Recover the amino acids of this structure.
């Protein structure tokens, strides 16, 4: 068991009462809370400045969402382990968390015992998702990411542009390639993702899964 006193934590939630309650609970169990934030921008600044062991973040925050904080921090090579605390159980949120390789995903209805289990897993570089998530949702998210991992870097770039509603001609101009090359990549993407439904299949899929795609 990791020594709790050695675990430094930044917490962020735009509800002051929830933030205070979480801080009190963590500190009463021996954890060291080194920073609190009421919005995503504050959270990001604290994470990059204080380099805590763990950051516990709400997803829905002003200025930057919890996911945006994590994505930016990771791009800046942060070594902090990330756990999100949310009311959201929807599959799209699970997929985004998986795409960002977040260490933990907890629901605000979970007990503090589960929070502790998640923190322990995170500091040991393991993944922990709330037991409230059903196995089907987690399997679907893993399968979705497995398919996305089959894409080449060029195909991933094109899929991100498709998700932003670029046309094939606009993608060709942006990437300085021919429209024929873009269409070939689109065909490969359709095959790798196992999509059906004709030429619009990849566009429709990308729009539905935009947040997961952009998190990659």
């Amino acid at each position: 068991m990791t020594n709790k006193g050695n675990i430094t934590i930044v917490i962020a939630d735009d509800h002051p009462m929830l933030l205070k309650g979480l801080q009190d609970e963590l500190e009463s169990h021996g954890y060291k809370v080194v920073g609190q934030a009421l919005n995503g921008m504050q959270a990001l600044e604290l994470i990059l400045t204080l380099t805590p062991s763990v950051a516990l973040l709400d997803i829905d925050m002003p200025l930057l969402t919890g996911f945006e904080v994590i994505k930016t921090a990771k791009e800046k090579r942060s070594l902090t382990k990330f756990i999100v605390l949310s009311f959201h159980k929807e599959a799209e949120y699970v997929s985004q968390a998986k795409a960002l390789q977040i260490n933990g995903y907890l629901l605000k209805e979970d007990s503090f015992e589960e929070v502790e289990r998640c923190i322990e897993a995170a500091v040991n570089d393991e993944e922990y998702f709330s037991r409230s998530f059903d196995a089907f949702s987690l399997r679907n998210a893993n399968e979705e990411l497995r398919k996305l991992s089959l894409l080449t870097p060029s195909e991933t770039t094109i899929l991100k542009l498709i998700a932003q509603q670029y046309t094939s001609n606009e993608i060709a101009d942006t990437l300085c390639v021919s429209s024929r090359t873009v269409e070939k990549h689109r065909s490969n993407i359709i095959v790798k993702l196992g999509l059906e439904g004709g030429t619009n299949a990849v566009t429709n899929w990308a729009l539905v899964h935009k947040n997961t795609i952009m998190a990659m």
About this structure: Strands lie at 8-12, 32-37, 54-58, 81-86, 104-107, 128-129. DSSP finds eleven helices and six strands in the chain.
